[in-house]
Amino acid sequence: MRGMPTFRQMEYFLMAANCGSFRVAAERLHMTQPPLSRQIKELENILGGPLFTRSKAGVQLTKRGIAFYKEVPLLRDQFLEIQKKMDAFSLGEKSNWHIGFTSVLSPNIFNQIRKFLTDKLGSDAVSFTYGYSKKLSDLVSKKKLDLAIIGTPSPIPEFDYKLLHLATERMYVAISKSHILSSKEEISLIDLKNEHLFWFQRNENKEYYDKCEYYFLSRGFNMKRKQDPGDNHILLSLISAGEGFSIVPHSITLNERSNLAYIPLIEKESEELNIKIQMIYRSDIDFTHENLINDIHRAHASINN
Q1: Angle CA 240–243–247, to nearest 5
Q2: Rounded Cα gap, residues 253 and 243, in angstroms
Q3: If we measure between CA atoms, which residue out of 191, 101, 110 comes closest to residue 140?
Q4: Contact assessment for residue 117 and residue 96, using Cβ atoms and an 8 Å cutoff
Q5: Burial of 233: CB neighbours in 10 Å, binned 0-12, 13-18, 19+
Q6: Is residue 278 within 8 Å of residue 284, measured between CB atoms?
Q7: In the Cβ-directed half-sphere of 102, how many Cα atoms lie within 13 Å?
Q8: Which domains does the chain have, with CATH numbers?
Q9: Would residue 174 be called left, alpha or beta, if left means φ above 0 and alpha means ψ between -120 and 50 degrees?
Q10: For residues 96 and 127, is the Cβ–Cβ distance under 8 A?
Q11: Residue 24 to residues 29, 55, 168, 262: CA-CA distances in angstroms?
């Protein structure tokens, strides 16, 4: 047995046949001609004879080549259909996915990733929980969620887990456009020392809270505090009304409002206060589902850029 043609060889063969030239085919495939010629030669060896006649004018199909050319589209379509079924098997082996999504991020990003997953898996095959990172990590540890997108630093219970980094969020100040500082291109917290900061409670995320408070203390940032309402929609409404400001990650800036300005924190302060967006999942997750994890990674990257 001489072996089986590869999908790549069939693609190369079709391109060469359609172009009538190995040189032009190689250019369209973004490769050099020698590797293309080698793949065609291997294909000819597998099929037992020449597929092309070569001349200075280009290449033409032999009778064997014409016969194969008629069969390749069907073979290619069958291969793609098999590949599609295997992808569906990898994702669908588990009938239902339960996925958590941190409320730190914009609902816009959550909605876009939710649409991506429901389009891919079907609306009945995936459910979502939206909440604080601490709660989501706890649900993953108890196997009530399969995976979650969380903001770190964040408290994570003791269990065997893995983290996949998605993004590091630059930090911004959300402030009313009516504020005198709203037109600044960058801002330092020292500029806001006399303003009210909407701030979350320590029990919501003590790791991030302590990190920020230590930095505030070390730099002499002693802003007055107001309790964060715990809902981004309400928070941004209060800020738009001029009742204070908040420190928010980049993704929140996708929530545009007529009287709301987002100003980047100066780089040094942003680096100290930034939030890392990560996917957490149990180490024992079945890696036939790795495609799903990678898909979420790519979806988040494309949305957040």
Answers
A1: 75
A2: 18
A3: 101
A4: no
A5: exposed
A6: no
A7: 26
A8: 7-91 (1.10.10.10), 97-168+276-304 (3.40.190.10), 171-273 (3.40.190.10)
A9: beta
A10: yes
A11: 9, 14, 43, 50
Phi, psi of 81 (to 5 degrees): -65, -40
Distance CA 237, CA 266 (A): 24
At 266, list the tokens: 């100066």
For residues 238-257, give the mean pLDDT. Answer: 90
* CA nearest neighbour of 71 among 51, 45, 41: 51
Q: State yes or no: pLDDT of 262 exceeds 50.
A: yes
Report, as an integer, the average pLDDT of 66-86: 77
Confidence grade of residue 238 (pLDDT, cut at 50, 70, 90)? very high
First to last CA, the chain: 50
Contacts of residue 102, Cβ cutoff 8 Å, sequence gap at least 6: 131, 132, 133, 136, 148, 149, 150, 151, 277
The amino acid at 23:
R
Whether pTM > 0.70 for this model: the answer is: no
Task: Dump pLDDT digits (tens) for 134-162.
Answer: 889 999 999 899 889 888 877 788 888 88
- The tens digit of pLDDT for each residue in 273-303 reads 998 888 898 887 764 455 666 667 666 666 5
Give the residue from 45, 46, 39, 41 showing the smallest Cα distance to 3.
Answer: 46
Calculate the average pLDDT of the chain.
84
Single-letter residue type at 159: F
Proportion of the chain above pLDDT 70, given as a percent: 87
Residues in the chain: 305
